[in-house]
Design a protein that fits this description.
216 residues; alpha+beta; Immunoglobulin-like; 2 domains; 6-stranded antiparallel sheet; 9 strands
Length: 216
Amino acid sequence: MPTNTKKASPIYAVLGLGALAYGALLALGINVAKNLTGNAAFPNPPVDLTAFSALLSSFSASIAAALEGGKNAKAVRDKDRKLIIQDLKALALYVQNNCNDDMTIFTTSGFTAKASTKTAGQPVAIPTIKSLDYGLLPGELTASIKSVTGAKAYNIRYAPLTGGLPGPWTTVQVAVIKKPTTFSNLTRGTDYAFQVQALGSVGLTDWSDSATIMCT
């Protein structure tokens, strides 16, 4: 009976080559050239590695010469830098496409892989009832929620109080909190308790502390 195997996640090289300092770009190029030369896992690189190594030597010399302020040396350095970035991008794409998404194979190239682990979702804070008020009609109350970062939706529950203790709770889902939520057909002259909870990426929060109001 065939078994299902999870497909490996794609592997991508860390680039951002244009932001690298000259020395860091040179070090990366030397490392990649060294690791790809004679590497059986990557037998047909799109860049001639011998010519690439010669370009790296030229770049190293032009970096040193440019430190003395020579205009021509700086021009050579910048030209070499542009060509090295172009070759490294081509080599990175080749390695990504030919490593079979196998990290062990990929790391033999000299490139560094981008982190692929996603940050786990974090619990959201417990929300609160911002305010309770009276509705437009008798037997109506309204509740406003103070939002919390990361919440996708909210639940409000309410219950009549008897002797200071809540009776059966009624829960209402609230998707939009820009305006107060109205609760109708409540018993006038009765105290009600309201609580709220939020739905985040890892589930529901606990219920908030109660806020109370008498229905009129």
